[in-house]
Amino acid sequence: MNGLDALEQDLSRQLVLTGHGGADWTRPRAAGGEHVHDVVIVGGGQSGLATAFGLLRERVSNILIIDENPAGYEGPWETYARMITLRTPKDLTPIDFGLPALTYRAWWEAQHGPDSWDAVDKILRGDWMDYLRWYRRVLALPVRNEARLDLIEPLDNGLHRLHLAGGETLLARKVVLATGIQGGGEWHVPPMIAKALPRTRYAHTSEAIDYAALAGKRIGMLGGGASAFDNANCALGAGVAEVHVFLRRKALPRINPIRFMERVGFTGRYPALDDATKYAVMAAFLGHNQPPTNDTFARAAAWPGFALHLGAPWLSVSPDGDGAVVTTPQGPHRFDFLVLSTGLVSDPGLRPELRLVADRIARWADRHAPPAGQANALIDAHPYLGPGFELLPRDPADAAALHGLFAFNYSALISLGLSASALSGLKNALPRLVRGVADQLFLDDRDVLVADLIAYDEPEFLGEWPPREENAAA
Hints:
Blueprint: H1 3-17, E1 36-42, H2 46-57, E2 63-66, H3 104-112, H4 125-138, E3 143-144, E4 149-154, E5 160-164, E6 169-180, E7 185-187, H5 191-196, E8 202-204, E9 218-222, H6 226-237, E10 242-246, H7 257-264, H8 266-269, H9 275-286, H10 294-302, E11 306-309, E12 316-320, E13 323-328, E14 331-335, E15 337-340, E16 344-346, H11 364-367, H12 377-380, H13 399-402, E17 405-409, H14 413-416, H15 423-444, H16 446-455, H17 469-473
Parallel strand pairs: 1-2, 1-6, 2-3, 6-17, 8-15, 9-10, 9-15, 10-11
Antiparallel strand pairs: 4-5, 5-6, 7-16, 12-13, 13-14
Helix pairs in contact: 1-3, 2-15, 6-10
């Protein structure tokens, strides 16, 4: 028996010992002969998989995960992520729910031996994706791939009809949007660039970019966060002749506030803060652009074709032949292609699948007024979520349309802190989400469940007094 087989046997035993499995307690819903899922999870990456496992541990198994990507390519790790290693410390245990045999370390050591762990500095991106593939397989999670959600339609009976690309629909009582960093809004493309250039001359770092096709070319990259350096290394490694990274700041970002949050309890206790404190904390947090890791920066700086331009915002962009001219305070620069590492904007109004309900969703601007001069438009556009990641209405009259919708993606950052927005937040956020979904399911069925409890008459004690003779003889 190899190490992985032994680990999987150990995991099966741990699942039994911790009471995993058993009959569901939810009550089936009828809808004209169509199957109604208790929960549909949109997104089959790490957040979606772990949400499903958490629900199964709560004995909610009438669930389905849908993901638009082919099997094994969910999430960013094998699509647009270009870092060599994860930035998260290797010792975090974000999605194992306290089961030792389900941790990344156990999976790694089962294949490489217990003495190999000390030699791991950071987790390789490809290894993390392989771990997620194993996680899905060994837990037998119900994932349907190549199923893209186009629209959520609220129905009058407490259900939601999910319209998939191609015309198929699903019915669900609860919908969890585990749609990752981009799932709460859209990647930001500065209007100056979108208006000036055809779409073939630039790309966002969130997109698939064929850097090999740009071999020998000059690339201009806007933004100096971690993804800019990841993409610079990827491009230069594919044969791109030069990559010029431009920052508005006069110095590279050096502080990563996530490291502090991990140490002092912010990842778990942030939701307990009042709104004014949350607003101030996140204003400071968003003021830090996540820096590259030291090894990522060192690799980029070592390439002969790498150049870094500090204090160099792009003042204008214009087409030039087959390329583009970028003008900064230091003068013009001509490039064959532009890459944008410009982050994203979180706003439910930007999500096409929410277009029937977006105007009804409460934003932070609706619920909290910061002191004069301290308003932050990025924060204000985020949805104002309930304690279990549930979407809340701007107007109480719209509560029914939003009931059952949960945002477990980057847009939860302001309301609930590092949660689906970072691996380091998942350990604390997942139980909160699972509890929120299960509580709603229970409260929706409370009349039936309470009536069943009151009417319950199944005997458990079968003894008699005085004992029958045959019982006494025995």
